[in-house]
């Protein structure tokens, strides 16, 4: 068999979660909450099922849900999208990213990827015959060197992928970053793919800088989002993407032949739940409290860190504990200490990230306390 993705291994998220289960370890690796989604939302799904919404919904998503997405974006970022032509509900953000890349990247096209990067981007680019052009984020705060981005753009560049708030580092792009990106892309045909699955998880009174907020950028932007991340139900695998009609037309062609449409009762439930903006506006505070609890609990440990500014991940540097590499240390932590994390080097090309682990703090306070107790003993 000739593999289409010879260098691609089983996802680190599957590997670490399995290892955690096999060793009965506390699982702070794969990003999902260990607490329940809102009972109200579950009731809305049951209601939708009982009301007969059990057959195919429209391929681009339930219209009421697309309308609610439009209202949310208008409220938060001031941009008006058309629910009929510019929104598609997808099987998680994963499918949104896949369809967006597949719709536009052709053989030999270059796609700029900022490293560390989420694990699906590069394999998807390669499946379309595209060439990932990696640019390393810089320094302790993983900032973007926009001059480097500018010099990487050529006539072959088809797309650039950004992710804010950023997995795994917990950094965010500022308004200044977005304006620089807007300026760099003006006068080019480069498409912006903006992965914003953690848009509602942003801390310390910072504002999320969505690509939809910047009028010129939004004309070339495909924005991807995830209800699973937002509403504590990653297993429902529902998300969406937003793009100007000319781009969305092409995305929908791929969406139709990949999944056609996405589960119907969940879409009805989200449409109802989104009517109350507090359901998403309260999340930053909720997760900031968890971040603060976790950091406070480990403040006397030998780990060093910069506090996460968004997402539900915290990077911890362990060079004060051991000089082994992150993959070995992560494995030993599961097997010998009963705690699972994600080694950052798997997202990366940089040597420096061999001594950092990513911990997911979307966990009950009890779990965070048990985890911190172990981490403080190292
Ligand atoms: N992008 C990033 C940065 C992620 O962390 C994840 C994981 N949720 C996804 C995309 C995929 O999201 P979903 O679970 O909705 O497919
Ligand atoms: N996005 C999640 C994370 O970063 C995992 C999603 C997955 O398991 N594919 O942990």
From TrEMBL:
<keyword id="KW-0808">Transferase</keyword>
<keyword id="KW-0032">Aminotransferase</keyword>
<dbReference type="InterPro" id="IPR015422">
    <property type="entry name" value="PyrdxlP-dep_Trfase_small"/>
</dbReference>
<dbReference type="InterPro" id="IPR015421">
    <property type="entry name" value="PyrdxlP-dep_Trfase_major"/>
</dbReference>
<dbReference type="InterPro" id="IPR015424">
    <property type="entry name" value="PyrdxlP-dep_Trfase"/>
</dbReference>
<keyword id="KW-0663">Pyridoxal phosphate</keyword>
<feature type="domain" description="Aminotransferase class I/classII large">
    <location>
        <begin position="25"/>
        <end position="374"/>
    </location>
</feature>
<dbReference type="GO" id="GO:0008483">
    <property type="term" value="F:transaminase activity"/>
</dbReference>
<dbReference type="Pfam" id="PF00155">
    <property type="entry name" value="Aminotran_1_2"/>
</dbReference>
<dbReference type="InterPro" id="IPR051326">
    <property type="entry name" value="Kynurenine-oxoglutarate_AT"/>
</dbReference>
<protein>
    <submittedName>
        <fullName>Methionine aminotransferase</fullName>
    </submittedName>
</protein>
<dbReference type="InterPro" id="IPR004839">
    <property type="entry name" value="Aminotransferase_I/II_large"/>
</dbReference>
């Amino acid at each position: 068999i000739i593999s289409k993705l010879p260098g691609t291994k089983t996802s680190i998220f599957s590997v670490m979660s399995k290892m955690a289960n096999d060793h009965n370890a506390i699982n702070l690796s794969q990003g999902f909450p260990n607490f329940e989604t809102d009972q109200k939302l579950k009731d809305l799904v049951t209601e939708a099922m009982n009301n007969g919404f059990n057959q195919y919904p429209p391929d681009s998503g339930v219209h009421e849900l697309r309308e609610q997405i439009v209202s949310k974006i208008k409220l938060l970022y001031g941009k008006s999208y058309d629910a009929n032509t510019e929104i598609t509900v997808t099987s998680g953000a994963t499918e949104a990213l896949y369809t967006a890349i597949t719709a536009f990247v052709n053989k030999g096209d270059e796609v700029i990827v900022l490293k560390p990067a989420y694990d699906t981007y590069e394999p998807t680019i390669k499946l379309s015959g595209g060439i990932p052009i990696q640019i390393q984020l810089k320094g302790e705060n993983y900032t973007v060197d926009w001059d480097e981005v500018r010099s990487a753009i050529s006539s072959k560049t088809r797309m650039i992928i950004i992710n804010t708030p950023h997995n795994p580092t917990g950094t965010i792009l500022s308004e200044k970053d977005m304006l620089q990106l807007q300026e760099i892309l003006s006068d080019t045909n480069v498409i912006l793919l903006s992965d914003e699955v953690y848009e509602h998880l942003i801390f310390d009174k910072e504002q999320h800088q969505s690509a939809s907020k910047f009028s010129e950028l939004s004309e070339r932007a495909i924005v991807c989002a995830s209800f699973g991340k937002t509403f504590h139900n990653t297993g429902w695998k529902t998300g969406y993407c937003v793009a100007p009609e000319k781009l969305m037309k092409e995305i929908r062609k791929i969406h139709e032949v990949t999944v056609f449409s996405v589960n119907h009762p969940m879409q009805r439930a989200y449409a109802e739940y989104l009517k109350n903006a507090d359901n998403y506006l309260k999340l930053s505070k909720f997760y900031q409290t968890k971040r603060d609890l976790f950091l406070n609990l480990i403040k006397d440990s030998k780990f060093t860190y910069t506090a996460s500014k968004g997402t539900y991940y915290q990077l911890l540097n362990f060079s004060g504990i051991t000089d082994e590499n992150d993959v070995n240390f992560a494995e030993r932590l599961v097997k010998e200490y009963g705690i699972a994390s994600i080694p950052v080097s798997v997202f990366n090309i940089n040597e420096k990230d061999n001594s950092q682990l990513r911990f997911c703090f979307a966990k009950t306070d009890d779990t965070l306390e048990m985890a911190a107790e172990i981490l403080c003993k190292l």
